[in-house]
Structures are given as structure tokens and as C-alpha cells.
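SEQUENCE-TO-STRUCTURE ENTRY
===========================
Question of interest: how does this chain fold, as expressed in C-alpha cells?
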Amino acid sequence: MMRPVTNILLVIIAMCSLSACDSNDYPDPDDVLRDYLLAVYTGQNEVAYGYVSSGDKSVKSLKDYLTENKKRANPLVKEFVDNFEVRIASINEAESNAVIKASIVSPDFGGMLKGLEQSSGKTDETSIDPNTAVQMLKQKYENLAVPTVYKNDSFQLVNEMGAWKVFLNWQVELMEKAREDRISNLLAEARELRKSNSSLESAIEKYKEVLELNSDMVIAVQGIKDTEQEIADYTVRQEYIKNISLYDLEAKFYTIFSESKIPGVKFKLKNNGERLLREVEVTVYFKDASGTIIAEERYRPVMAMKKSFSGDQVILRKNYIWQMEEGNFYKADGVPTEWSEGAVDAKVTNIKFAE
């Protein structure tokens, strides 16, 4: 008659034992955080990854994590690991999550190594062998207090079926990296577009896209301002180009020394306007027998950095005429054999003012 009661008691005792066992199986969130940070500090990356939340692991695999942190281990850490400490400032714990504020204390390896380099006569351009550094620092601080640095930080942990895990929010990190990569690409595209006057408006659109991603990106704000000024300057230059006459255009196959049939061009320029020009760019378009443009060459006959045979800088002043020295011509090496001799058009495509 007593057997049912005995069985019930045994079940109750087993349940209580199981409950007690469960409560002791999983460490507290502060202990988990300490173990995680110690693993990170000592370069035990696989161990550290084990403390990370499942949500984070779904974003970043162990392989990716190990690849990212393969250089994190510091050979000095092993000898000075006792000087690493995690001081818990506060814990705000709920059933499913916990927020821990902590101070992370670690040896000041930067200062220690700097002092070691100075005492050994090393310069900033040289470094001490890590194994040698370990022995030297171990000996130096055998009876001295190891200098430390500390960093205050806040950590979030989540409860996953009774086990506390460190939540690093890698999803946000991934999104932030994608945003930074997009910004970097847009800025590179804008810089490339600004190389061509015809693409300046497109460059501004790229900068605007950057500001949509980060409204505080100063480089984009300045980029828009600079590009708008470039557009304004370009408009002024294009208007002034109407004052430049390009005439006496000649295009043919020239013969020099032993070479023959070298495609080339000659022309003259006159500045009919009021401003001084320190650079003039001329584009010559080469055509085939049907009149189709098949190639182009750009020349800069007027350049302030270029000097004439007299030693003077080539600046095209009001009413001045530029022409090539007698017997010379511009070679057009890139012109294909389909070019029909003499079939060209030419125009001034860009200028720079001297004042």
C-alpha cells in the first residue's frame, strides 16, 4: 500500500534534483562575459565564437570569424595574462537578456614596448623580435608593477534555453559595412566622373547618394560644392571658346627621315577675346572614306608649363596667334589605317585661363 507514495516521493526528489542540476549547469551572465573577453584577449578565437549568440552566428560563420581574427593573438599575452581583468560595474538582468557595464583592464603593451625600444636603441622603423620582447619584458617587470590601461564598455547578453550568450549584433555590423562599402564606391565613382566635364552633373548625383546614406559626410558636401564650381567654371570656359579661332587645319601622311606615311596634323589658333590663356586643348577627329569618325586625338598646343624655343612660357594673349614651328606637326599614332587622308574635323574642347 505504501509503494505509490514512495514512487511519488522519488519522482519529486528526482525533479528537484534535476531542477537544481539545471540551475547550476549554466554560469551567470557576468561569468560568461568574463570568459568570452578572456578568450578574445588571449586569441582563443574558436572558444570566443562559442560564447556568441546564435543570432550572430547566423550572420557570420566560424570560418569567417576565424579568418577575420587570425592575427588577433598577441605573443605577449601568455606571459602577462594575469594582469588582464574584467571589472563588472553593473548588471541589469532580465529573464531573456542582460546588459552589463564593465571595465576591461589589460597590460599597456604599447607603452611597455615603446619603453623597451627606447632602452634598446631601436627606432620607430624597426621592431624587436616578439620572443625577445617577451623575455626582456618578463625580466623587466619581474619585480615591477605592470602598467595597465582600461576601457569602459557595455555588453548585451541573451538567454538561449538557459545558457547566456554574448549578443554582438553582427547583423547591424554587416549592414554598416555594406553601407560603408557603398559610400566608398560612390565617392570613387564621383571622382572618376569629375575627370570629364561632360559628367560633372552625374558626379553631383553620386555625392547626393552618399549624403542619403550619411548626411554628415563632409567629403560629399564639399564634393558637391567643388563640382558645382567646376560646372560654373566649365560653363565660362565653354562660352569663351567661341573667341578662339582654329584655322589652316592640315591633315595628311608626313615623311620624316627614314619613316614614311606618318599620320599627322597642323593648325593655327588665334585668341580673339580679352583674357589670357595658359592652356588650350584641341581635339582632332579622324574620318574614314564614308565620313564616319573612327578615331580622335587630343593635343595641348598652348600650355603655360611648356616653353617655346625662346624660353618663354606659351601663353596665348589677346589677338595672339599660335602656330607650330616650321617643319613640325602633331603625330597621330593611334589613327587606324582606315583613315582617309585629309578627312578630319577639329575643335577647341577645353581651355584654362592664365589669370
